[in-house]
Amino acid sequence: MKSLVPWNRAKRSAAPMRLDHWFDRVWEDPFDTFFPVFNRSFSSSLPSVDVSENKKEVTVKAEIPGMTEKDIELTWNNGVLNIRGEKKEEKEDKKKDSYYRECRYGSFSRDIPLGNALEWSNARAKYKHGVLTVTIPKTEQARKAVEIKVN
Fold first, then answer.
1. 117-132 burial by CB neighbour count: b if 16+ within 10 A, else e?
2. What is the Cα–Cα distance from 22 to 16, expressed in whole angstroms?
3. Distance (Å, rounded) from C-alpha 126 to C-alpha 110?
4. Are 103 and 136 in contact (CB under 8 A)?
5. For 55-102, how does the pLDDT look when each residue is reduced to its tens digit (9 = 90+)?
6. Phi, psi of 79 (to 5 degrees)
7. Model pTM greater than 0.85?
8. What's phi and psi for 59, nearest 5 deg?
9. Where are the domains of the chain?
10. CATH number of 48-151
11. 90 with 103: CB under 8 angstroms?
């Protein structure tokens, strides 16, 4: 049975793990069990995304802090929304007795499959306070519910 204490990856014990606990961890997060360093760096570089829908539209919200509208690129291809961002920042401080320069570069790309039953030509996007919101209306056919009979 799982504990109600929140999981904290950073507080893993250095003590030897019992074999049955190892098998439990494999099923909880198999990628992290075998490639823990890669998994942490990979997952932290992708923005968190929430996808929701109602009868009229699909909404995608992505957390992309520290960027501007010009740093973000949205494309649609074959039912997949691609969110791509790239940030370049350079600071330079020259003084008489010192010189300071800092460069930061980072990029990400995330594909979100949404299907072709959307009116991509009428999609709207806005970026405010680090959150990108993309709203895509559904096609007339997608708005109609289809009942499927169970035998």
1. ebeeeebeeebeeeeb
2. 10
3. 17
4. no
5. 899 999 999 988 889 999 999 998 899 999 988 888 888 888 888 888
6. 85, 10
7. no
8. -120, 130
9. 16-45, 48-151
10. 2.60.40.790
11. yes
